[in-house]
Prior knowledge:
With 322 residues, the protein is of the alpha+beta class. α1 crosses α10 (305-320) and α4 (130-141) packs antiparallel against α5 (152-159). The protein has helices at residues 2-13, 25-37, 61-66, 130-141, 152-159, 162-167, 213-217, 223-232, 280-286, 305-320, and strands spanning 49-59, 76-85, 101-108, 114-120, 181-182, 187-190, 196-205, 237-245, 265-276, 298-300.
Amino acid sequence: MKKIFAVSAVLLSSLVPAFADEAPIGQQIVDALNKVYGVHPGFRANHAKGIVVEGTFKGSPDASRLSKASIFDGSAIPVTIRFSDAGGVPNVADGSKGLPHGMAIKYHLKDGSETDMVLVSLKFFPVSDGAGFRDLLLATAASPPNAPKPTKLDAFLAAHPAAPAALASTSTPDSFADEEYYGIDAFIFVDKDGKKQPVRYMMQPEKLVHLDPADAAKKAPDFLVDELPARLAKGPVTFHLQAQLAAPGDQTRDPSKPWPADRKVVELGTLTIDKVDPDSLAAQKKLLFLPGALAPGIEQSDDPLIDVRDGAYVVSFGRRNP
């Protein structure tokens, strides 16, 4: 079903009008990303630089009580993972200041279907919806280094205080394996009795190591991409998938508003990464990760950004695989 949806969506995206104000918001976002970073054929419009690895996930008993989803049944589920640098430049320096990082996971289920999680190192999203993200990108594109002050970006950040706060929540890790990643959107777990619980994902490393910005700037441009294969050659890398549980009354619609830090956190399972894809560049071109590609037992919340992200990723996929 997911593959049919993806192919159909790509075909539909090619039929929409070329005028930005008539195009779906996902297409507008990809067009805005291209304004900021340029067009790089064969690469994603965002998170262009990355590396693909493989491993397994094993769900916890607590996870299976919260959700009937098959990824939490306690069996070892094969996974494909892509770590990445944010932005649309394929050769961006891994240690660039203020550069968020991503972790996208595709779970290969026993029945042949797939379900995805798309996480980032930002603790929350800079804006509340797709239109806001498009406008942030357009303001960035209109604010080159020589632009008069205050720039359009300065004005946007002043009017959207969540944006600078979100961007300030990221740091450069010493390894993709030593970073924490967040599912900025809320999803709904459904248990075997039909009880529903809103959650937000968190992926925690065995140890969290962030570099001082000055030290990060001195690193080789590809130090994160190069370090991970060397680390995996010595042994597997482990992460712990967690869920922050919403309390009654917590909103689920706005990804720029995190829930209070005292909300209960539950261990969902262990992710073990053991090898790098031998042809990572070719593999990542063909991979499409969709936050809205969900297994039974996990549902979308009322957060509109989930559908917006799906739409933008499909457009980006279609352009890199014409």
